[in-house]
Amino acid sequence: MSEETTDKKETARIEAFSDGVFAIAMTLLVLELKVPQLDEVASGTELWIALLSRWPSYLAYLVSFLFILIVWVNHHRLFVLIGRSDSRLLFLNGLILLVVTTIPFPTALLAEYLDRPAAWVACALYTATFVLLALSFSVLSSYISQNNHLLIRNLSPAQQAGITHNQRFSLISYSIAFALSFVNVYASFGLCILLAIYWAVIGYEQVSKADA
Amino acid sequence: MSEETTDKKETARIEAFSDGVFAIAMTLLVLELKVPQLDEVASGTELWIALLSRWPSYLAYLVSFLFILIVWVNHHRLFVLIGRSDSRLLFLNGLILLVVTTIPFPTALLAEYLDRPAAWVACALYTATFVLLALSFSVLSSYISQNNHLLIRNLSPAQQAGITHNQRFSLISYSIAFALSFVNVYASFGLCILLAIYWAVIGYEQVSKADA
Amino acid sequence: MSEETTDKKETARIEAFSDGVFAIAMTLLVLELKVPQLDEVASGTELWIALLSRWPSYLAYLVSFLFILIVWVNHHRLFVLIGRSDSRLLFLNGLILLVVTTIPFPTALLAEYLDRPAAWVACALYTATFVLLALSFSVLSSYISQNNHLLIRNLSPAQQAGITHNQRFSLISYSIAFALSFVNVYASFGLCILLAIYWAVIGYEQVSKADA
Amino acid sequence: MSEETTDKKETARIEAFSDGVFAIAMTLLVLELKVPQLDEVASGTELWIALLSRWPSYLAYLVSFLFILIVWVNHHRLFVLIGRSDSRLLFLNGLILLVVTTIPFPTALLAEYLDRPAAWVACALYTATFVLLALSFSVLSSYISQNNHLLIRNLSPAQQAGITHNQRFSLISYSIAFALSFVNVYASFGLCILLAIYWAVIGYEQVSKADA
Q1: pLDDT for residue A195 is more than 60
Q2: Distance CA B15, CA B72 (A)
Q3: Which of A166, B116, C185, D158 has the most neighbouring CB atoms within 10 Å?
Q4: Which of C47, C72, C205 lies nearest to residue D17, judging by beta carbons?
Q5: pTM of the predicted structure, to 2 decimals
Q6: b vs e for A191-212, b when ≥16 Cβ sit within 10 Å of the residue's Cβ?
Q7: How far apart are CA D18 and CA A165, in angstroms?
Q8: Is the pLDDT of residue B4 over 80?
Q9: CA-based nearest residue to A125, from D54, D40, B14, D12
């Protein structure tokens, strides 16, 4: 087996491991959706009301799910460029995984407190997680940009600009969401929803066009 | 590596990721089976009775497990046809994964309320999940049918008809189960059981014959 | 890609999916190990006692973990023989997965009741799970023995005899453990422990010798 | 398919299975981060205080996450040397997986008791897990060193010395952390944190240099 093949297998294994972590984090989110505990003779209407009153859970679940899905795509788009790994790359990728596995916790926190006075704390932590993730992606991207020998081939200026633009956009937009959480929780969480939709629908298209 | 190989690797990765989500969702179902908390001197008979009284949990567990297994097979049968991915395909596949990861929640809800007055609400949500899944599959299938360049080769009229037939059948039958939940919960859930058995035993055979 | 390659890829995917289910079921077992909730000023000695009093949890955890590990090995040994899949194989494999994903539940039940009067019920269900698993393996093995076209090459008489012997041994020994649970719980669970050790240490050696 | 290819596929499957277990154990850690249950009108400040008072949870989470990540890397570095498996290798690898899947339990224990009088018991069990893991790695390494036919090629004296050094270092350092837990919990846990950072940052670099 040539050295290049070994290197590629190495990064494939990092990707497969990361994918496993993403898939599990995504699926564990559902454990935060709690079945209402009503008394034995509760009517259907009472169950509906109990379920509907938990709307923050469902919303937080949806946004976090979409968010991890988007991270998975972005992670993959970054790793197709990488042909070799070294110990620092492994560690920086581990930082991304750390933030991703943590997501179910701020999600549960937001679900519990979104419609209560302490919401801004939950929302600040929720958006801070997104900022941290954007940061850890930026660090990984900078690292591979500065270490060309890890890349399959040098990035074209357009690719480089695309990556830089996307990450600056993420970092700024989630920082705004974080700042907003101290002003108005619904504006902050609303921005998270908009960003999730943007990335899922419009953002992907852009990237695809850039690929073509 | 030729472009075709890269494309195929791309869809293989989507499949592997989806498989991970299916396997985890399937296995998390068991966390909804709760050990009865009896006092220290409870007799064996009391434990039997406590366990047996939870039959809705076991039934809901079985049906949901079988259901995700069937979804896994169908997902796979669809993806063997696909040779390339684009951003919209990724997003539509994400929709399927979203519904699949949610399944443990309506399952737990049904397990809790099946033998209680509020059962119809739980059953409506349970069957609605199946309808949503059938819908998300239909959307994905339509999308790939209309975007031939994503397919490995054009679908034969028989393949196209088979897919259309299966999805129409799913959509209609689960919609009936959903409608029945407002009339008679046992009829609705009974239909879910029958459909799970049908797909596991008869449905697969049909598909296999069509393959041959 | 030749047809044979496609078939092999197909069974490889079933194996990868099953492996995922095994790995998750194995890892979920740890969620049944509960941290003792003592009051704020509890001494270290009190924590030791509280932890030690939960010995049935640890024992049940160990045996179930070892058991799933052994199932993983046996599943793999069976699948290296298989070169093609059909719908019934998929369904029979699904039965094995169903029993495996269920294991955390009887494990938690046994952990809760092993040192209490209702232990025999928990133990009967625990050993019944092992009997069911042995049965589902037997059914799958019979099926592939009778459908030679699914095999990579015909089984040698020695291989055939080895598989039959192992499965008869499993089925009989776990049935004895099940029967013993109605007589003496410690004898029954003790036999499970012995069997787990036998398979992990001696059983594998035998199979390896047969391979050589 | 040549015999060598089959052997390599065999060890690849053990690696993939182990990776799955590592990824799940890592991600399950988050389930131990509990959302504070405050009354409906709790202020943001109260939530902050409740969250901050749980700092042992976050610290234990971080250290255990980093620890499993390091184990994953080390496991991989060992397995790239291995070209064949036998039943004993499988069993020794199973021992490593057993300890890894157990990690969420001592982590939760430490998170619960770190700032309470019984902390030394929790810390002793936490560090004992690390000692056990170092031990199980040592056993696996010795086994493959003594069974050259399992290796892809004979270890160079430098590789052999590197492995021996790393494992002796792990075993001794975690044993010191274990011993310290009976003297001073913060010194013991502090050493665990230092070791995690050492392995993540300095340790990897060393190994990489040795590779070059």
Answers
A1: yes
A2: 10
A3: C185
A4: C72
A5: 0.90
A6: bbeebbebbbeebbeebeeeee
A7: 37
A8: no
A9: D54
